[in-house]
Amino acid sequence: MVFTMERRETFSSAHRLHSLEMSDEENKKVYGKCNNPNGHGHNYVWRVILKGEVDSRTGMLYDLGALKKEMAEVLDIVDHKHLDKDVDYFRSVPSTSENVVRFLYESIKSRLSRPELLKECILHETEKNVFTYSE
Amino acid sequence: MVFTMERRETFSSAHRLHSLEMSDEENKKVYGKCNNPNGHGHNYVWRVILKGEVDSRTGMLYDLGALKKEMAEVLDIVDHKHLDKDVDYFRSVPSTSENVVRFLYESIKSRLSRPELLKECILHETEKNVFTYSE
Amino acid sequence: MVFTMERRETFSSAHRLHSLEMSDEENKKVYGKCNNPNGHGHNYVWRVILKGEVDSRTGMLYDLGALKKEMAEVLDIVDHKHLDKDVDYFRSVPSTSENVVRFLYESIKSRLSRPELLKECILHETEKNVFTYSE
Amino acid sequence: MVFTMERRETFSSAHRLHSLEMSDEENKKVYGKCNNPNGHGHNYVWRVILKGEVDSRTGMLYDLGALKKEMAEVLDIVDHKHLDKDVDYFRSVPSTSENVVRFLYESIKSRLSRPELLKECILHETEKNVFTYSE
Amino acid sequence: MVFTMERRETFSSAHRLHSLEMSDEENKKVYGKCNNPNGHGHNYVWRVILKGEVDSRTGMLYDLGALKKEMAEVLDIVDHKHLDKDVDYFRSVPSTSENVVRFLYESIKSRLSRPELLKECILHETEKNVFTYSE
Amino acid sequence: MVFTMERRETFSSAHRLHSLEMSDEENKKVYGKCNNPNGHGHNYVWRVILKGEVDSRTGMLYDLGALKKEMAEVLDIVDHKHLDKDVDYFRSVPSTSENVVRFLYESIKSRLSRPELLKECILHETEKNVFTYSE
After folding, report:
1. Domain ranges in chain E?
2. Is the ipTM of this complex over 0.85?
3. Which residues in chain C touch residue D129, judged by CB atoms under 8 angstroms apart?
4. Which of A80, E30, E90, E125 could form a disulfide with D33 if both were Cys (CB 3.0 to 4.6 A apart)?
5. Which family would the database say this protein is a member of (chains A, B, C, D, E, F) (predicted)?
């Protein structure tokens, strides 16, 4: 028997794709319009998936109220922010959705009371582009 | 080669989270507003996922018309009902989404003509909370 | 020049369609499965639409933060509740979506700092059934 | 007989709510987290609604291919841009959704071959906040 | 006081845009890829909107069960059909969404027990193209 | 560490379920209304999922711009077409969604610059029926 539970939240951030390891010309070629100097932004959808057994007494896999609070702490870091300018993590790595979903995964894992239950994080950058990260 | 097919249906039910194994105070603490004495309700989304090979003659994994009928039998048990009061299964276990998705899984499995194809069931309690169950 | 702004929220409630002005038999005939004695429930979507001019200084039609708080007060009355048993308004009138959307309209109007801006309320009972009310 | 046709497109932009007519303190109070100095961003949904009669020969209200091109010209101005820094219109007025939807309305109207058909523009800032503009 | 109620259904049809009043060349120019000789198809979303007063005894604007049956009769004509080849109405007029939504409007109006309540019909051809018709 | 990225596109096609290996009577029995002689159609949603490591320099799993072009080549084969009449693949096999998603998988795999990254394809035939294929 395997159960999973998932919680979805959204956040709205600005960012610009630009890698310090590439020339301006290469950045423009690799990232296209996402390299616009003044940046752009998204309404991101963030989904956290936990996997495990269910407590027979409560019938729950994890305390949803606790998960909301733990996710809220992470959302405070990214919501209504400029990822590159306001979040330390993205000073050294480009804020591609691959790196953003990894950041979210690591950020929620360190806050979960039972981090071993974390299965994966999913990030919708737009309705058409979706990214996942797991260990 | 692995194929899956999924069918989604919806149902609307009332329920209340309350465990017979906990005191009233503990129920209130664990379930919060979901423990409201008079209950609340949801439009649930139920997704059944089958996995297997495709019949080369029909090009189908499973007869979708048959699956619809089999799911309809299960929906008759829960749709426009109070889960705790109208469904026997939830007299002894709390109607958390974890337990509801398990009930749906077992209920559809016993009705499938080829139950070995059942991979998992997914239950959307709200747009933000999603649960899965598999063996 | 006419602007509108809309805010959407959701709430999860139980209810039962049953009119005190009709016999049990007539209730069953008129409301069908929605008359199930133990009730059922929905994830309702509630949309408030305001209409008016925009303040040239702030570029806003209405303070969205204030609207959120005003809607939250109304949501406290209906969310995770049994409409018929927990909300006084539905003791005398059946909790059809027509009556629910009217209740929401009147409840938010009395809380808005500028009630004359309220254009209409919209209520999604399910993905397939949508109701609106305006004066 | 009245027909309308609607075309939806999306774009992803950064912006910051900040009015030149208000002090820093007032900006922070009025706009809250939307006043974050480094900005934030959205996946906007833009809907253009045309209204009129249908050409009996073609059975169409307006040439959809032409509308796509006309909307694409406007999208080039805002998509993957910072509204405040990259779009002249928002140098003098704050980039609230009320002002953005008005800008989109005026921008598409000046490009339509039959501007008298334009009924309104709708802008979804997030899943929860929606704005319309019409004359 | 004005109430509206809306019911949404879906249907899946094939069609081809081709006007008998235009040459093959003109058809290709006007309709583009929608003029593909072998046709294409859509999952249409059909929304019927009724407008009127609410019966104080039942709390309802119209009998939803009756509306479902009346819409089902219309759906039988178009669902899993080729609009041009299987529906008489489209033998003489091109099956543009403008004409399809008008056909749906007229077809449901003639079946409603209170046709004066019909306000409009809405047709989603795709997620991006939406059409309405009213008298 | 495992990353996936997904790109979603849509296409609109006509088709008819009819197997050359079955009699007319059997086709009608197996496929029901999907066997309508003149066909029907869908707005399909096609999702391509890639799985692999992320390039630390670009922060990307795969070049999204390249994937869009590769998917566009496949979309040209099926979009605004009649699957059975316009696509060679479906001359010999019935155009069930199981076979369509397999065709899409094979078609995109042969176009990817790194085909080993392809994890699976997902096809939404309608909002209720979803199919996946992987090797």
Report:
1. 3-133
2. yes
3. 5-8, 64
4. A80
5. Belongs to the PTPS family.
